[in-house]
UniProtKB/TrEMBL annotation:
Species of the source: Aegilops tauschii subsp. strangulata
Keywords linked to the UniProt accession: ATP-binding, Chromosome, Coiled coil, DNA damage, DNA recombination, DNA repair, Nucleotide-binding, Nucleus
InterPro entries cross-referenced by the UniProt entry: P-loop_NTPase (IPR027417), Rad50/SbcC_AAA (IPR038729)
Protein name, as recorded: Rad50/SbcC-type AAA domain-containing protein
Annotated Pfam families: AAA_23 (PF13476)
Length: 403
């Protein structure tokens, strides 16, 4: 049950006495024999009393499970789902941890209280860490391990949490070896041994990695030796290059001597040429007079050429003008030929019409000779009309011929 003297403390005194890492409250739902349990704990020693089977050890087991203990290590069940109360589908554990003072864990994130909630179902389990206001902060197992390591809460250490089975095993065991095992585990020597074994395994692995690296380095070492040999060869090449520079210098001086000799020979030739210079100058003067005459002639020919170019340009313009006139005349000729052809066709039609009228005239004349005097007068009128038409056609034909 609850500690009576702690319940009588005022809230201010309890807050002042709170220490970082102490558990202030435990809530269980459907965990082992508890359907719903809510316990507030004091800051120091707390006693929980009750009859056998009332659920005292279940509270201690719930703390172990909340802080990450495996089900087998509690010696109460084989799996986490075995802690769910019979007839229920899940179980929940909530633990409030004080987080005040110098040893507080990330107080800027969690505040004065860390709320740890562990929920267990038949298929899975989850852990949630909340701040003092109930806001979710983290849910990973590593985050819980940080808190456990910070507050030194080692639930698997029998000196931290000693279950009934462990206390019975320690008190009633007469075997020094078993007591040593208990001591070995309680003093964290067993964990230290496990860490040393882990470190030993890592060292062995590191040695094997080093051996693999050495094997991989061997080709590089061979390349390094080859490079060193090449460097030696390069040093020898540098000596050869130095000798080449000296030989180049000697070759340059030999070239200077050769050039000096050639200069002397050219100097002799130059003296000879200087002796021939007056005669050459005289020839140059004569050629200068000739060149001047040729220049004058060239200027005159250029002027004639320019005048010829101008005339040629005028003639080209005239030629283009004439070609344009010829093109227009040809075009006009084609138009006149077309018009003449149309007139000839028209004249042919007019001649046909004339022949028809002449035939009609002859017919009328025959009819006139056979008709009466009255009809003769009428026929005469008709003949006059026909004669007018013939005259009109003759005038048209004449006009077409003239056109």
């Amino acid at each position: 049950g609850k500690s009576p003297n702690l319940r009588q403390l005022p809230a201010r005194s309890k807050a002042a006495a709170a220490m970082a890492g102490t558990i202030s409250r435990i809530r269980l739902e459907n965990f082992m024999c508890h359907s719903s349990l809510d316990i507030e704990l004091g800051q120091h020693v707390n006693f929980i009393t009750g009859q056998n089977g009332s659920g005292k050890s279940a509270i201690l087991t719930a703390l172990c499970i909340a802080f990450g203990c495996r089900a087998k290590n509690t010696q109460r069940a084989a799996t986490l789902k075995d802690f769910i109360k019979t007839g229920c589908s899940d179980a929940a554990i909530a633990v409030d941890i004080n987080n005040q003072g110098e040893d507080a864990f990330k107080p800027d994130i969690y505040g004065n209280l860390i709320k740890l909630e562990r929920r267990i179902t038949k298929s899975s389990s989850s852990t949630i860490l909340k701040d003092q206001h109930g806001r979710k902060v983290a849910h990973r197992k590593d985050d819980l391990n940080e808190i456990v390591e910070h507050f030194n809460i080692d639930v698997e250490n029998p000196c931290v949490i000693m279950s009934q089975d462990k206390s019975r095993e320690f008190l009633h065991s007469g075997n020094d070896k078993d007591k040593f095992k208990f001591f070995f585990k309680a003093t964290l020597l067993q964990r230290l041994k496990e860490l040393l074994e882990t470190i030993r395994d890592q060292v062995h692995k590191a040695d094997s990695d080093v051996q693999e690296l050495e094997k991989s380095i061997k080709p590089v070492m061979r390349e390094l030796d080859e490079l060193r040999e090449k460097i030696k060869n390069m040093e020898h090449i540098e000596e050869i290059a130095h000798d080449i520079d000296n030989l180049k210098k000697k070759l340059a001086w030999s070239w200077v001597y050769e050039v000096d000799q050639q200069i002397e020979e050219q100097t002799v030739k130059l003296q000879k040429l200087k002796g021939r210079a007056p005669a050459c100058q005289e020839r140059i003067d004569r050629n200068t007079v000739v060149i001047d005459k040729l220049k004058k002639e060239l200027i005159e020919k250029e002027e004639n050429l320019r005048s010829l170019v101008g005339k040629t340009r005028e003639e080209n313009n005239m030629k283009k003008s004439m070609e344009n006139n010829i093109a227009e005349a040809v075009k006009r000729e084609i138009e006149l030929e077309a018009e003449h052809e149309r007139g000839a066709h028209m004249l042919q039609r007019k001649n046909g019409r004339l022949n028809q009228l002449q035939a009609q005239l002859r017919d009328f004349q025959m009819q006139h000779m056979q008709s009466t005097q009255a009809e003769a007068s009428q026929m005469e009128k008709d003949m006059q009309n026909i004669q007018q038409q013939i005259d009109h056609l003759h005038s048209n034909v004449t006009r077409v011929k003239r056109g």
